[in-house]
Design a protein that fits this description.
- By secondary structure, this protein is α+β, with helices and mostly antiparallel strands.
- 30% of the residues lie in helices and 33% in strands.
- The protein has 3 domains: 107 residues, Beta Barrel (conserved putative lor/sdh protein from methanococcus maripaludis s2 fold), CATH 2.40.420.20; 106 residues, Beta Barrel (Elongation Factor Tu (Ef-tu), domain 3), CATH 2.40.30.170; 141 residues, RNA polymerase II/Efflux pump adaptor protein, barrel-sandwich hybrid domain (OB fold (Dihydrolipoamide Acetyltransferase, E2P), Beta Barrel), CATH 2.40.50.
- The strands form 3 sheets. Strands 2, 4, 7, 9, 10, 11, 12, 13, 17 and 18 form a 10-stranded antiparallel beta sheet that branches. Strands 1, 14, 15, 16, 19 and 20 form a 6-stranded mixed beta sheet that branches.
- Helix 2 packs antiparallel against helix 3.
- The chain is rod-shaped, with a radius of gyration of 49 Å.
- One of its GO terms (cellular component) is cell envelope.
- Belongs to the membrane fusion protein (MFP) (TC 8.A.1) family.
- It is found in: Cell envelope.
């Protein structure tokens, strides 16, 4: 017969069993702090292994300062050549040769066309023969007058015959003068058979070809030459603004007679012409129909970039603001309402969007009339890296060297403002 094995604790009294349980719990309690310590060490190790927080993004800023800026009016203008000459045929004949390349630069006195000189040479020979005949007649008339003078003193010829001899001598002298004039004209016309450039400049296309008969009834136009190494620009301006412009000139502002570099020319692509212009005040009259005056500025054009007939914009100085605030154009964005905005770095190192008012452009900078103060730090580059309220690391802005690609105008301030 088999009996179940008795549990060793079954024969313990209730007090003994309670003591055993308490001892077991005390052992477990000693292990708990160690377990918690191990968990803490693991958390510290995990925190130590975590990557450090990234540094604030870097942005390029300028510190806005007050500076003198010339305020300018921008007006439409049209380019005109410094000199323009129509080349015309001055004698009649057939064109034998064209001696220039169309669209090229020609020098004053350079041969352009050759007209058939044969008829003109014949005219020279005829005039020379007429002069020789007149000289022979003059010799005969002088001899007769000499004899008549001697005979009239002796009473051998009448006074009338003597007067006729003197008149014949005078007529012979007149015929000589006429023949010499005709010979000079014939030689001059022969010279006109070689058509030369009256001025230096750029010549256009030939208006006639070889074989054309020119100068038959009128002076036929052959070509046009325009001097464009220096050009004029004719500018329309309201007459009411002319007095202000003259006053600026008298005050010595770079906007009139006192300034040799008074005008800035802007091409149709927005790029400024590298050469400054001189504003001319002579010959100004008011158009009674429009109330406008036409001003003329003179610009050097060594690269021949400006061509007659081109429409351009001309900036004329109106006054100088001695305490203007300016920012680079790439620092200005637009919000959803079309308002101009900039991103500024505050004293706490965080960015904020600031709405501004602009009052014109000075070269590649906007003139700010409100919204900024001297000393404000405006973000010029790095808009794409930050949002308003973000902490940043500001570094001084370095302008792009001339000839390098310009940085595109940013728009994060606009999106942030929305």
């Amino acid at each position: 017969m088999h009996y179940a094995k008795a549990n060793p604790g079954d024969d313990l009294s209730p007090r003994a069993r309670l003591h055993r349980r308490m001892t077991h719990l005390r052992k477990l309690g000693g292990l708990l702090p160690a377990a918690l310590l191990l968990l803490g060490l693991g958390a510290c190790r995990a925190a130590a292994d975590a990557p450090p927080a990234p540094p604030p993004p870097e942005v390029s800023v300028i510190e806005v300062q007050m500076e003198p800026v010339t305020l300018r009016d921008e007006l439409p203008g049209r380019v005109a050549p410094l000199r323009l000459a129509e080349v015309r045929a001055r004698v009649a004949g057939v064109v034998l040769k064209r001696s220039f390349t169309e669209g090229s630069e020609v020098k004053e006195g350079q041969t352009l066309f050759v007209i058939d000189p044969a008829p003109l040479k014949a005219a020279v020979d005829s005039a020379a023969a007429a002069l020789a005949k007149g000289q022979a007649n003059l010799g005969q008339a002088e001899a007769r007058a000499k004899r008549a003078t001697a005979l009239v003193q002796e009473g051998l010829v009448s006074r009338e015959a003597y007067d006729d001899a003197l008149a014949a001598q005078a007529m012979a002298h007149a015929e000589i003068a006429q023949a010499r004039s005709a010979l000079s004209l014939a030689r001059l016309n022969l010279g006109y058979a070689t058509v030369t450039a009256p001025i230096s400049g750029r010549i256009g296309g030939a208006l006639v070809t070889e074989g054309a008969l020119v100068g038959q009834a009128e002076a036929t136009p052959l070509a046009v030459i325009q001097q464009i190494d220096t050009v004029y620009v004719d500018i329309k301006q309201p007459a009411s603004q002319l007095t202000r412009l003259r006053r600026a000139a008298l005050d010595g502002a770079p906007g009139g007679e006192a300034g040799q570099h008074a005008a800035i020319l802007v091409l149709d692509d927005g790029v400024e012409h590298p050469e400054k212009g001189e504003l001319l005040f002579s010959g100004i009259s008011v158009d009674p129909g429009t109330g406008e005056v036409t001003l003329r500025a003179r610009f050097p054009n060594p690269s021949r970039l400006l061509l007659p007939g081109m429409f351009v914009r001309v900036k004329l100085a109106k006054r100088v603001d001695q305490a203007a605030l300016t920012v680079p154009q790439q620092a200005v964005g637009r919000d959803g309402g079309g308002n101009a905005t900039v991103l500024v770095v505050q004293p706490d190192g965080k960015t904020a969007v600031r709405q501004v008012q602009t009052g014109g452009v000075d070269h590649d900078r906007y003139i700010v009339t409100s919204g900024l103060n001297a000393g404000d730090k405006v973000v010029v580059e790095g808009h794409q890296k930050v949002a308003p309220g973000a902490e940043v690391r500001a570094v001084p802005f370095t302008p792009t060297p001339a000839g390098s690609a310009a940085a595109p105008a940013p728009a994060p301030a606009a999106s942030a403002a929305r």
